[in-house]
Amino acid sequence: IIAVASRAAHLPGMVASATPLPVIGVPVPLARLDGMDSLLSIVQMPAGVPVATVSIGGARNAGLLAVRILGASDPALQQRMSAFQAGLEQMVLEKDEALRRKLLGE
């Protein structure tokens, strides 16, 4: 379960207290405090109410974490995640090469 919350960010903790399923909290940035209030609210859950927390505005990473959790028992999903990660690695290598060419003339 991915729970997105802002300000006092009660939603992830409330959901986690009501289900045995994993809960991933996503703090949302607002005009004041840039989401720090949400982040601190989500990570400070009491014992027995675990909530995995990603970065402020980190909905993409929340989705990827959920896929990894599900992939622990689904080899096909795990394989797709591995392919996704390989694609990210390739993208970084291509950007590195382009930057080196631009800066160093390589």
TrEMBL record:
GO BP term, pick one: 'de novo' IMP biosynthetic process
Keyword list, A-Z: Purine biosynthesis
Residue ranges of every copy of the PurE domain listed in the record: 1-92
Gene3D superfamilies in the cross-refs: 3.40.50.1970
Domain of life: Bacteria
Record flagged with keyword Transferase: no
PANTHER family in UniProt: PHOSPHORIBOSYLAMINOIMIDAZOLE CARBOXYLASE, PHOSPHORIBOSYLAMINOIMIDAZOLE CARBOXYLASE CATALYTIC SUBUNIT
UniProt-recorded name of the protein: N5-carboxyaminoimidazole ribonucleotide mutase
